[in-house]
Amino acid sequence: MIPIAWYLIFSAALFCIGLFGALARKNAVAILMGIELMLNAVNVNLIAFWHYYAQIHSRPYVHGLAFTTMVFVVAAAEVAVGLALVISAYRRRQTPVVDELTLLKG
């Protein structure tokens, strides 16, 4: 069996890559991809803790799977709304660069 620390290290690395991708990029689609990586890191944590908790208590708890499903739903909604906003802004300004999108400024 793989130790839980390996899952946590993998999840932390995935989260750091996503955070770097969200903060360092100027392209709106790349920022959304970084946020998706961070949400996937959360899912890895949830599944790892659920798996080890279910082994310790030897009962089939589904709380971890329920939380993971909720994160997937939030991620799907975030992608749908975010991509719709990016496409709308691109059609108006003809640029995907976030620094040049000043649609909400007065």
TrEMBL record:
The chain crosses the membrane at residues 6-24, 31-53, 65-87. GO terms for biological process: ATP synthesis coupled electron transport. GO terms for cellular component: NADH dehydrogenase complex; plasma membrane. It is a multi-pass membrane protein. It catalyses: a quinone + NADH + 5 H(+)(in) = a quinol + NAD(+) + 4 H(+)(out). Keywords: Cell membrane, Membrane, NAD, Oxidoreductase, Quinone, Translocase, Transmembrane, Transmembrane helix, Transport, Ubiquinone. NCBIfam families: PRK05715.1-2. This is NADH-quinone oxidoreductase subunit K. Its EC number is 7.1.1.-. The keyword Coiled coil does not apply. Its main location: membrane. NDH-1 shuttles electrons from NADH, via FMN and iron-sulfur (Fe-S) centers, to quinones in the respiratory chain. The immediate electron acceptor for the enzyme in this species is believed to be ubiquinone. Couples the redox reaction to proton translocation (for every two electrons transferred, four hydrogen ions are translocated across the cytoplasmic membrane), and thus conserves the redox energy in a proton gradient. NDH-1 is composed of 14 different subunits. Subunits NuoA, H, J, K, L, M, N constitute the membrane sector of the complex.
